[in-house]
Amino acid sequence: MFTVLQAVALVAATLSTGFMASLFITYSAVIMPGLGGADDRTFVAGFQRLDAALVTPAFLLLGFLGALIFTGLAGLLQLGSEQRAALPWIIAAFVLYLATFVITIAVHLPLNNGLKEAGHPDRIADLAAVRAAFREQTWLAWNHVRSVVGLIAFGCLAWALVQFGRSLG
After folding, report:
1. pLDDT tens by residue, 74-103
2. A Pfam family this protein belongs to (predicted)?
């Protein structure tokens, strides 16, 4: 039964971290370049709507926070095992995903909140100033970092799954 719990935690960690990495990559490769070419009103309105649609309890639990929680749980459960081949990879993934978490809290959330707090685009007097205050290039550069680091964390967890499977013999 303990082995099943270990496997479930590791699979959940891998899936949630993979989901987050793919989301970061989608923002870098598709969403921000698409919005980047839009006029100021479309950019502000579009980003506000995307942010509102994304930040839900399900997203927070299964994705953003879930990746950190599930990876931490997977690591803790490996500590109670005789076979710990997956543990170094889980620890690496946890540290890497924690970096994406910190980047999000330190960089992206303040910028996203500033855009949200500007109000409805129809009531913003100077959309260009709101967009400039968002610091689009800073947001995007740090999102590229999140994308790469998140993808490496996902790779570590995928390899941890391989190591875990091998340890079962």
Report:
1. 999 999 778 889 999 999 999 999 999 999
2. Anthrone_oxy
